C-alpha cells in the first residue's frame, strides 16, 4: 500500500467534499452537533485550497483523507477558558482543522499516519507548536488527538458562540 500526503488542488475538491459529507453523516449518527450546520462548505474547502493550506491523504492513488493545516493564528484560539496554552518562547503555531478520513479506510490507522505527516510538515515550516480542537462529545477524535501526542489545554468557543464549545489541545515540538 502506498500512502503519502500532498497539497490539494481544485481538481481534488469533489473527492474532498465527499469525504467531508461522510464525516458530517458519521458525526450526526453519533449525535455530535459538530459540522451539522452546513459548515464546512465547498467554498470553505476551496478557500483552503486557494490559500495552499489544504492537504489530502493519498492511499493507493486514491484520496482517502482531507485536512487543513493553518499557518496563521486561529482567532478562536485567542481566548481559552478553564485552562491555558502552555507557554512557549515563540508564540507562532500551526493548527489542524477540517480533518476527515473517507469511509472504507477506517480501521487502518491512517489517521495516525496523517497526523504524523501534518506534524512533520508543521515542523518543516518552522512551527514548534500545534493546536487543534474538537467537540466535547467527539470522543473518537479526542482519542486520536491525544494518541498523536496533543495535551488537553482547556475550552475554546467557535466565533464567540457560547453554544459552540470545543476542547482545545496543544502539541509542543522540540
TrEMBL record:
Transmembrane segments: none
One Pfam family of this chain: Acetyltransf_1
GO MF annotations, alphabetized: acyltransferase activity, transferring groups other than amino-acyl groups; choloylglycine hydrolase activity
Domain of life of the source: Bacteria
Enzyme class: hydrolase
EC number: 3.5.1.24
Domain N-acetyltransferase: 3-174
Swiss-Prot/TrEMBL keywords: Hydrolase, Transferase
Name of the protein: Choloylglycine hydrolase
Organism this protein belongs to: Lactiplantibacillus plantarum
Amino acid at each position: 500500500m502506498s500512502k503519502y500526503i500532498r497539497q490539494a488542488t481544485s481538481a481534488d475538491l469533489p473527492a474532498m467534499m465527499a469525504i467531508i459529507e461522510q464525516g458530517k453523516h458519521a458525526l450526526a449518527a453519533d449525535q455530535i452537533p459538530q459540522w451539522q450546520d452546513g459548515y464546512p462548505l465547498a467554498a470553505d474547502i476551496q478557500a483552503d485550497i486557494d490559500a495552499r493550506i489544504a492537504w489530502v491523504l493519498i492511499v493507493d492513488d486514491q484520496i482517502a483523507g482531507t485536512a487543513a493545516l493553518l499557518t496563521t493564528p486561529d482567532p478562536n484560539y485567542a481566548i481559552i477558558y478553564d485552562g491555558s496554552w502552555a507557554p512557549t518562547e515563540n508564540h507562532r503555531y500551526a493548527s489542524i482543522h477540517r480533518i476527515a478520513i473517507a469511509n472504507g479506510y477506517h480501521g487502518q490507522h491512517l489517521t495516525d499516519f496523517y497526523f504524523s505527516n501534518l506534524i512533520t510538515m508543521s515542523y518543516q515550516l518552522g512551527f514548534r507548536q500545534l493546536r487543534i480542537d474538537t467537540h466535547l462529545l467527539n470522543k473518537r477524535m479526542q482519542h486520536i488527538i491525544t494518541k498523536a501526542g496533543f495535551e488537553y489545554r482547556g475550552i475554546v468557543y467557535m466565533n464567540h458562540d457560547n453554544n459552540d464549545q470545543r476542547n482545545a489541545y496543544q502539541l509542543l515540538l522540540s
